[in-house]
Design goal:
37 strands, UDP N-Acetylglucosamine Acyltransferase, domain 1, 345 residues, EC 2.3.1.191 (chains A, B, C), homotrimer, Udp-n-acetylmuramoylalanyl-d-glutamate--2,6- Diaminopimelate Ligase, Chain: A, domain 1
Chain lengths: 345, 345, 345
């Protein structure tokens, strides 16, 4: 596609830009500045890579206006190059299904309701009363249980499982191997044995959500587990029953959330962080990698450690802990000098 | 179903109860006290929710006798409302397969032995010499490798894999995406390379066990990996080769167990806890979230931290660590005052 | 097979050994010294098990020469019994596919290129332009997306997913449920929402690699994610986009690597360890269980804790932390005695 087609995407999205160069150049791929060729879209997001910019062979570079003078090729100057790059790369690599219709080896119930241009790949199972919105793409091996509703323009990865009654909005991606609506960990103890609490709530996932590969979002025990709009969730994340993840939150790999915990809007949770059950967090919290949240967090801010504290305090504590040897020796020295003083008196 | 049918379940299970109200009311679902309607079973497990009890519209509430007077509707008074709720909810939501027989798209070896009322859903693979007990339900996409034995009344979730020779008892659930009997991590180092140790043991899982979504239980290297009766295991748990999990233990999400470790009976392991290999734990241990067990634990009790210590000690240490700044200043002040004293002498 | 066939394997691998006993004995299985019978291969790797050696009924034992005199049965004396055992056990349990060809229920694209003796089991999906090398075994339920290249002598486990364009070398194993080439976690923030960065790099996996059950290796954002030759990776490991794992490294269960991190050659990473993004480690590093690496590690060595420090320092710090109570009391005592001195002066 020609650069002018890319620019028309920016026009449609009402994004301010300045173009410099030849709009007729053909762009077919994306590449880093160093590996780009004449047909590549590239971007500069940090002045660390100015040398790469000077030598790039890219067809067009998205950058901030202050770097335009140093760009040896066509450039698109914008306020936020990384965001604009994402929009343009989505056009260069449209996430479109390979065909419309149902592969012969798929098993689709007669009562399933597939809208226009749905793609059901090989060996997929779609059970009774499932509805799937237009242009949604279900990859090979996925299993969609009865009464599930999936919106339009979704991508359901290979070997994903979505259990009965769950609801998924529009423009949402469930990456391969993820399990949505599996049974939560609800058991009543009874004299050394465990009696199962039937898990009859649903998982309700909003629009523009992404759930990572092999992640698990358990169905609610009675009420629903909820992932609000615009949440992004990485791989191997565990979300227990009745958790609510607030709008726009981002959850990194291997984080885990115990039951009935409610994460505020626009939280950022780094890798391997863990949340105990039955607590809540304020909006706009940031939890560091490996942090452990054991109580409700009432105020926005950055938190670290286990149990979490404010990140600034935690960093200070880490330094103190590393100086414990020195502190122990200072105490010993004080004891010695005090003894001397006592003896002299 | 009418309330008197529910009460007959309690009779059959020899559970003491007192009923108050109208046994002819029809119950079709479960609900929390706040969202219940005339056809709902609900329960009260904590006096925190007394206000909800007062206003509930539920058809019947399971509660302790001291709260019966405050219940505006039919009630079942019992010693342990949560356990009794679990039994009754299992009746309202029977976990029954949708049909008996083998779906047309499933691939079942001629030598497989399926007992009565087995349900094999779409796209399932059942290989040579597998045996599956009566009323066991194998959901779409599961793969059962050769010589596996699965007991009666089990539920094998979608896209589960059970590798060759493994044994699964009765009334056991393997949730979706779990891998049972995958190869363990056994390698002999040889000049910077790794030579594979064939993993020829089995996984042997008892009765009334539950393994969570996308969890992995590796087969033994030579002897077996064993999950004893009545264990419940949550999502994304890693159980390495030759581990033994003692009867009645409960393991929460994302916990991990390295090879040949032996967990005692009735252990409770919280989320993201980790166990080094070749150690054992006593019966009735409780390990807190994110704890790390690096040595054998000989005594029952509660343990926390990494490496674990008794929870009471760990809690004290956490407080001390947060006061390190204060301790450092106390030392500084001591040094100053001592210096003054020394100068005065 | 007779012991002399096993010995010829050692000859072919140019391994020095001394045999003592009767080479005509038939070996059909492996067993621990305690459970071995006349047809078992066993090994002794530690003098802890000398008593078991004395009483073993094994057909042949691999051991170091100093223990040969105490072995009551046939023995093979070698320098490294565990490595030699691995080689011989591989012969006793050849990892061979059950058949050559394509199962009837598999869905294989016409443009897929399968070399000789490839085994494609039931319900497998192989898409357009995939190539699979000779004697590679693809187990039931695996999904191989378009343009993937898999080498010879590989084993692709059940319900594995390999996404488009990824490359896998020879003699490599992808264990069941692993997701190779899923989309990485690349998003550009935009006013409280997230705009997807198309993930268009590949995963490139070398020869003699093993990826564990339900692990995830994300495709690169633009360039590739790379797992070099002879790496072994355990279950439920998360490897984000553009990570490089250096040759010969071993990664234990539930470890996680954030994006663009580069692990050196021959690193050993223990369970539940975590690595932040955009850092690198030296060759021959060892990271302890639950350690957290937040910065580049320039020197080989053993590291522990979060954030990591040299293991020896970390161990000392742990002891100090446990003595904080004592230190606090020492400070209190110093304050008291100092006060007394001050009052006396």
């Amino acid at each position: 596609m020609r650069i002018d087609s890319l620019l028309s995407v920016l026009d449609r999205n009402q994004i301010d830009y300045q173009f410099s160069g030849d709009k007729s150049v053909e762009i077919n791929r994306v590449a880093g500045l160093d590996n780009a060729s004449q047909d590549s879209l590239s971007f500069l997001n940090s002045n660390k890579f100015i040398d790469s910019l000077n030598q790039t062979l890219a067809g067009v570079v998205v950058l901030r206006s202050e770097f335009q003078a140093q760009c040896p090729t066509n450039s698109i100057s914008v306020h936020d190059p990384y965001f604009v790059y994402s929009l343009l790369a989505q056009v260069v690599y449209p996430d479109a299904a390979p065909f419309s219709g149902v592969a012969e080896s798929a098993s689709v119930a007669l009562t399933a309701d597939l809208e226009e241009q749905v793609c059901i790949e090989d060996q997929v199972v779609v059970k009774e009363n499932v509805s799937i919105g237009c242009q949604t793409w279900v990859q090979s091996g996925a299993v969609i249980h009865r009464n599930v509703k999936i919106g339009a323009h979704c991508k359901i990865g290979s070997n994903v499982v979505i259990h009965e009654n769950c609801i998924i909005g529009d423009h949402t991606r469930i990456e391969s191997g993820a399990i949505i609506g599996g049974d939560g960990f609800g058991w009543a103890p009874n004299r050394g044995q465990w009696s199962k609490i039937p898990q009859v709530g649903r998982v309700v996932i909003g629009n523009h959500v992404s759930i990572g590969n092999n992640s698990c979002v358990d169905r609610g025990a009675i009420e629903d587990t909820v992932i609000e709009d615009h949440c992004i969730i990485d791989n191997l994340v565990h979300i227990a029953h009745n958790v609510v993840i607030g709008e726009g939150s981002a959850i990194a790999g291997q984080a885990g959330f115990a039951g009935t915990t409610k994460i505020g809007k626009h939280n950022i949770v780094a890798g391997q962080a863990g949340f105990a059950g039955h607590l809540s967090t304020a909006d706009n919290c940031h939890f560091a990698a490996k942090s452990g949240v054991t109580q409700t967090v009432k105020n926005s801010g950055a938190y670290s450690g286990f149990p979490v504290q404010e990140t600034a305090k935690w960093q200070k504590q880490i330094v103190r802990q590393r100086n414990l040897d020195k502190m122990a020796m200072q105490i010993k020295e004080l004891q010695k000098q005090l003894k001397e003083l006592q003896n002299n008196n």
